[in-house]
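Quick one: sequence plus flavin-adenine dinucleotide SMILES, need structure tokens.
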Amino acid sequence: MKISRRDALKISAATVAATALSACTKEEIKPPKKVQSPTSFLPFPKTASPRVVVVGGGWSGLSLAKQLKIEAPQAEVILVEQRFEFVSCPMSNLWLVDKIDLEFLTHDYLQGARENNYTYFQASVYGIDKEAKILKTTNGDIEYDYLALAPGIDYDYSFWTDDKVLENRLRNEYPAAFKSGSEHMTLREKILNFKGGNFIFTVPGGNYRCLPAPYERACMVADYFKSKGIKAKVILLDENNDITIKEHGFHTAMKELYSDYLEYVPNAKIEEIDLDKKVVTTEFDEFSFEDASFYPHVRGGKLLEMLGFAKDTIYNKMEANIDPFTYEVIGEENIFVSGDARPMGFSKSGNTSNTEAKYVARLIAGKINKGPKIQWETPVTVCISLVSIKPERGIFIHSEYAYNKKAGQFEFATPVTDEIWKGEHGEKNAAGAYDWAKAMYTDMFN
Ligand SMILES: Cc1cc2nc3c(=O)[nH]c(=O)nc-3n(C[C@H](O)[C@H](O)[C@H](O)COP(=O)(O)OP(=O)(O)OC[C@H]3O[C@@H](n4cnc5c(N)ncnc54)[C@H](O)[C@@H]3O)c2cc1C
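Reply:
Sure thing.
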């Protein structure tokens, strides 16, 4: 068959159209060009030096990163922290009542890294490839040889409610302020603008973060209301059957200084919180409130559960699944957890985390340096709680720990408690709180 020029043009037009169409269709069904996920970038090319990645720039992670560079200077240490600056929880009860400036609590991660020769990397960790030894962060993947996780605590509202709407209202409208950041700011606004009536605080069961802090906070707020002449009462609902630590000092201070401003209620297991009616129902009573800050049970930092390194313990849910002496994750080599996320019954305190982290750093450095076996070292708990602002007076505890083989757990050993808050003695204790805090900030950042 003869094809005319006209036909030929028609065919070629049709072919072009068909080709274009098929190209277009192919293009459409082709999977989109693979865009490299920002998280697969490797911000730190691997060097010959052993690399330790520390996650969490709290009291534990900061102390660990610094000590590692002392014990194993040849190691490359990267501290991954989601926050942009450090704000201390210890001493924050004083900031809540306007006694100290935020500057006293706030410290610079970059300075800590610069002074101590490690790298601060701002990012959130969300995953791990254990085989490839890669940590997944929101700002890129990081290869590691050793991993030290110190993510602290999260809150566990499940003892009070399964209702997520209520839980979110509690988190947002009545925050506990036992993790640093916005929660503290909200609570401070509540306290400083309180017009009068009942202000409820709670003390959870389990091994919660900083045993004396809820009692110290109750005293500080009662002192503030009293000194401002505000007709207000702090109601402290304690799930425990008594004040959990320094009980003599706190009981006497509450009774002698704040009898009209502070009501301490032990055995106050909360059964219902009605935020609309503003009523808390416990096993034995009902308490109405004008404002509140609800401190729920704590659990290990969620990161551990995300990475598969958590278990329920006799104290709390989802704490680190580690060997209590070597801090190594059970079933994993060269992955460690320290700080408040630990499962041992140590006091969840900054001083405990700082001293413990130095021991864990020695364990990791021992592996890097292929040194002799490191002997177990007890963490040290030191805590000074203020009971009044005008004048400033405080009570003190110092303790180390020993392992009770029969009970299969650690216990306080040689606790030294100085609960005298009256007169010059108490004032000296309070001054000691500032000296302690300054020394700790220096220890972590300089
Ligand atoms: C009101 C109050 C008063 C206190 N008073 C005292 C006191 O007087 N003395 C004392 O010794 N202790 C005190 N403490 C306790 C002390 O603050 C804690 O025990 C200490 O902070 C625990 O250190 P940590 O490093 O385990 O946890 P944290 O200090 O909470 O640090 C955990 C860090 O991990 C980071 N993180 C978590 N998940 C991720 C992730 N996925 N990616 C990246 N980063 C992550 C967090 O941002 C955080 O910075 C007090 C606590 C409170 C709340």
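The chain has twelve helices and 24 strands. The chain has two domains: 41-152+301-369, 157-297.
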